[in-house]
Amino acid sequence: MDALLVLLLLVIVFVGGMMWLRSRGVSRQQAELEDAKAEARRWTERLGGQVLNLIGTDEASKQAIADAAERYNAAGSQLEQARTVAQTRLVTQTALEGLYYVRAARTAMGMDPGPELPAASGQARAGAVSEDREVDVEGQHYAASPRPSGRTPHYYPGGMVAGRPVPQGWYSTPWWKPALVAGAWGVGSFLLFSTMFAGMAGVPAVESWESGDTGDAGDGGDTGDGGDAGDGGDAGDTGDFGGDAGGDFGGDFGGGDFGGFGDF
What we know:
Oligomer: single chain
Strand content: 5-15%
Order of helices and strands: HHHHEEEEEEHHH
Helix content: 40-55%
Number of strands: 6
Distance between the termini: 77 Å
Largest sheet: 4 strands, antiparallel
Structural class: alpha+beta
Shape: elongated
């Protein structure tokens, strides 16, 4: 009888301990989620304040502000749907992308771009445009530059699109957007990248772009102050998250006809 009582007590202690550990784990996860949401909300609100107070003065700045506004709307939608830490960190990344567009708009208008930002996801791997280039591919003219101009009014903060790097810089047309929306690069993509960026310092090698193994872009790597962007880390269990985390990235490409650059 005494042995049975001791066994019963041990079972009660064991079950109670397991319940306590589980409760503690849930509380810790909830605290992490709340912290991640607070961080995401801070960056999103910062982006919103910039978007609402900036008015473009030329084509480049207007386009960059429009892209920043799209990122702000996407971040707000993602934040409402976020249920995990990984999903919430994606919101932070979206807001950071928007703030890079804000910096680009301010630069285009000759204003102080503001404080440095943590590196957005994939920037170091994608590199940055380091010189002016103009190429003709399949009957279409493309230009890239490290600076905004009427010739290159479309900015991209740099990052991975459908598994391939798009260097940070200013472009004549947003040639990366079909892949961003479709999730895959079309026919002619490799030819455009190889023609535009072959031998450019700070941009992944053409062979690496084709294989998707970009490693670190070297000189084009860390833009800005770096940081870890709130530890964007592994997206983990993001679920559907309302479709692609980036939405349709503004839907309308705003870049005109992509012509012979493959049928997406």
